[in-house]
Amino acid sequence: MSDKITVTRPSMPQMSEYIEEISDLWESHWLTNMGIKHKMLQDKLQEYLDVAAIELFTNGHMALELTLQALALKGEVITTPFTFASTTHAIIRNGLQPVFCDINDRDYTIDVSKIEGLITDRTCAILPVHVYGNVCDVEEIERIAKRHHLKVIYDAAHAFGVHYKGKSIAQFGDASCFSFHATKMFNTIEGGACCYRDEALGRTLYQLKNFGIRDEDTVEGVGANAKMNEFCAAMGLCNLRHVEEERNKRKKVVERYCEHLQNVEGLRLNQRRSETDSNYAYFPVVFDKDRFGADRDEVKEALAREDIGVRKYFYPLTSTFECFHGKYRTDNTPVAVKVSENVLTLPLYADLALEDVDRICQAVIKCKR
Ligand SMILES: *Cc1c(COP(=O)(O)O)cnc(C)c1O
Description:
Layout: H1 15-22, H2 25-28, H3 36-48, E1 53-57, H4 60-70, E2 76-79, H5 85-92, E3 97-100, E4 123-127, H6 138-148, E5 151-155, E6 163-164, E7 167-168, E8 175-179, E9 192-196, H7 199-208, E10 213-215, E11 218-219, H8 230-241, H9 243-261, E12 267-269, E13 284-287, H10 289-292, H11 296-305, H12 334-342, E14 343-345, H13 354-366
The structure holds pyridoxal-5'-phosphate.
């Protein structure tokens, strides 16, 4: 039990395990540029995520941004505003226009019934988010994409290790991009990956993360520098050994939260589609002020007074960011507006003590009027 509870706490291996993992770097002096750790992690993740191919990146954002670039998209991309800044920025930084689709109020993923109404002759792709690790309606998205010849790129930053109908989530779409940021359920300190099928796309991704260089004499593309270094890859190798154990610990935390909160009037807990499993990455709670008595911001303040950190994840909607100067409407994404104004994600990490979960829940319930 601890006094101050943070919303997240990165998983780390034993220090000795990490030191052992990095010790051969002092012999090789090969610190980055697709070294041996990079190769080993790539192979292990390909197996763990059960995918045909995977490319590692310095972070999840660059995986997403360079995947959009590699697909050479032009025009409009249908996406969700209920996400982290990265999703929308990746679109705009590629010179593409985001078209914001509403989310559904069950699992907060893109509302597939509203996608086709947003398709124009400029639409080139759909970029849905498996938000909180909740699986999108991948089947309907695939049908729509096929019918209209659109690419599908999943922002799978939250969905590491998740399955739908027994199939790895990383297998869906033209590409699925993951984040291995320190705060994610599997981390490489900073890191990310793109899972894909098309070999030609893979070659382009490999080039784009290394300045567009093809070989010593040829620079074929205008790439960035987005390579994962050896120390990050080594962290990933260590953390991957413990990922199942971490997932089980997170599961216990989530179950404890549910015991306390599932029957509290005015609280809406996370729901997943059937035939999906969970990686227990986040614990979002949506507050209904009319039935709970207190609103989201009041609860956040009350918890802060008790040294419990929570996040308004995701608020504000990306479509309302100051940097866009009111360019995007929100009247056609009413569910996203409502959820973002009423959601809090509660602390969740593998080593969160169950007594701390009890304390957090008591503090939440105390706000009820
Ligand atoms: C974390 C995150 C990203 C970006 O990943 P980084 O590794 O932090 O660059 C993208 N999309 C979503 C939804 C995220 O939560």
